[in-house]
Write a structure and sequence with these properties.
alpha/beta, 31% strand, 3 domains, Spore Coat Polysaccharide Biosynthesis Protein SpsA, Chain A, eight-stranded parallel β-sheet, single chain, globular, UDP N-Acetylglucosamine Acyltransferase, domain 1
Amino acid sequence: MTGGWFQAPRGPEGLAGTLADLPWLGLPLRERQERAFLEQRLRVHPAIVGGEGELAPGPRLLVRQDVALGTAAVADAVKLGQAQGRDLVFRLGGRAGAFAAELALGREEPLLAWIHEGVPDLARIAAAEVVELDPVERLVEVPVPGEAGASLVELPLTERLMHPAGHWLQLLWANLLGMAPFLWRGLVGRNPVEAGWSLGWAALRAGSLSPPLVAARLGRQGRRCRVHPSAVVEGCWLGDDVVVDAGAVVRGAVLADGVTVEEQALVEFSVLAPGARIQRKALVKFSVVGARAALGGLVQLSVVDRDAQVKVGAHLMDMALDQGVRVVVGGRQVPAPLGLAGVCVGAGTLVGGGVRVAPGRALPAGLAVVPPPESLVMRIPEGLSGTVTVRDGALVKR
């Protein structure tokens, strides 16, 4: 049996590079897809159905180029394909499936296909019978802020990951939904023996059986990592050469090779690609940060692409109080899942200090976004006293 790919209908939206390069859980998307195939002992063929290369006859499991795919989904799809002996297209059932449909942002298209025999093509995938995978999900209550205060929503967590990731908001949710299963497997273990050892050792270090205290003691560090004794690093996966400086707090995060978190910065439930830098006193929550990006401002529920910069004092907003956030998908506006979305900062774009970006917006690549000139003090008249304000670049009596 062979694992492979079929062509996505469109390239990345709001993001630079190719679909294969999209950051997912600390590695390029293509590499994560290949690992999911190889863990189930599927040979990987580089050809892409509907694209370059030629394929021999099946049986074959094919994932769309832009789909974040988990190992458990691959295992279940192969079992169903072999048992039923015909072409199939898979989707998730349960709450996870409903959320995945919402995450499609109005585009209902095949994500994962089994071609039983013969040479695969896009027409066969489109005509295949649709079957549901049991998500074996767990529902977790998550507080969602709103006008009347925070409300609780049930977010489905599953190891049967199968989510589109080609749009920047899809990439954000693919990382957020994949983080918990990834951290569990990476920090706790892949079987009961590993899990028992890891959890027992963490409980011993915590001196408690309280789940939050035990979880805080779980962690993985790669080679040559430097974590300052005053830093707090809890429940995180750290790649090689990661630096966490004095007073920094990092919780429930995936930090790829060469990431730096500077003094007194806060990083929670986020994925940082290789070489990203979180600057002193910055705040990053529930976000995806691209390779070599540098963040100094306030960032939540956002995607900051490779080589971008968010300066100190910048604020990427993540919530509209009067209505749910909408995002642009293929030139049309659609509601964001749960009505929440931050901002996408394009590759190489700089967001200057004092700039506030409304939620759901995507800044194109290669921009330098600076505050309006009228907010910059250029002229200071003599004889001022008391409270003054800035008007057209000058200080004036308020």
